[in-house]
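Exam revision sheet. Question 4 asks you to relate a sequence to its structure. Input first:
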Amino acid sequence: MSRHRYPINALLADYVRSALGVLLPIALMLFTDLLPLVSYSMTALAMLFAIYGLRTAWRQGAVITVDRDGVRQEGPLRGLLDRGIRWSELRDIQLRYYSTRRDRREGWMQLILRGMGNHAVIRMDSQLPSFDDIVRQAHAAALDHGLTINPTTAANLLSLGVVTADPATAAAVTRPKS
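Answer key, C-alpha cells:
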C-alpha cells in the first residue's frame, strides 16, 4: 500500500494565482470608482479565484491511497468528498496531457479513473509524487479487467513510458484481452 499527497511546492503557484485573483479585483473595487456592472464582474472574478484557492487547499489536504485492491482518495473534510474505486470495479481509464506551450514541450498529465456508480471518479495530476507508478497500476488493472484503452490514452501511456512499444503497435498493447 502506498499513500500519496501533493507537496506544497507543487501547489505554491496555484496558491499565488488564487491570491492574486482574489486581491486584484478587490483592490480595484476599493481604490477606483467602477461602474456597477464592472463591480459585479470583479466580485464574480474574486469569488471564482477564491473557489480555486479552496480547491487547491483541498488538494493539499487530500491523501491518495493505492493498494492491490484499488485506489482511494480521502479529503480533509472527514469523509464528505472521499472516493474509492476497487480495481475490479474500474470501468474507464483516461490519461490526458495538457500542454502549456505551443510546441507541447511543457505541460502536465491528468489521470482520470472511473468506477461503478455516478460519483466514482478520481482525478489526479502529474504533480503527485509517484504519479507514474499509479498510472502503471491503473493501466495494469485496466488490462486485467479487459477495458478498452482509447487512442489518446494509449499515446500518453507510451510517452510516459508505461507502455513500451512503437506508436504503430501501441494500440495492440492496450487492447483488451480476448
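Marking note for examiners. The CA atoms of residues 147 and 176 lie 5 Å apart.
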